[in-house]
Amino acid sequence: MAKLLRYQVAVSLDGFIAGPNGDYDWIVMDPAIDFTALHKMFDTAVMGRKTHAMMTAQGGTGAMPGLDVIVFSRTLPPAERKGIRITGEDPATVVAALKKRPGKDIWLFGGGELFRTLLDASLVDSVEVAVIPVLLGSGVPLLPPGGSTMLVLADQQTLPKSGIVVLSYGVVRKRVKPALVKIGFLKKPKAAGRPR
User: Any idea what the CATH number is for the domain that residue 92 is in?
Assistant: First the structure.
């Protein structure tokens, strides 16, 4: 099975992946989301400099346990630490090579500019968004302006506890069948006990 590049991200109802100051405290957690199962789908995560900066602002290195993290930046010096590589290489060239390697799928972790670059290079296979029930009014858009891309719905789930709607779309490209990725990181609802 081909290795997929999957843009998987939380987004506000009005289309922002972060608030005006890069804030993300509006992202609500839902007990139905199984983050262990989510991380097990991938062996590599790719992200841009701003997403990496957001992660390191929390006090870590930006590494993600169990994943090789590649940060694309034109301003940070190239570096390599345990589990993380910062590079100024062309993202499309690097990701195209990653997709040819055996292993699990690649998580396009963020942000919007990297998404636009890889989408324009016809490398993104699926767009999987968790729509958070909030209107931010402004912020970092899911995707910066550019050409249009057709998508086909692969799966949808609504999480009643939080109101989050999880959507999975395959990217439509010429001569390539869209990847229809099912949502596989939600905990199964507990069966109700038998009435007595």
Answer: 3.40.430.10
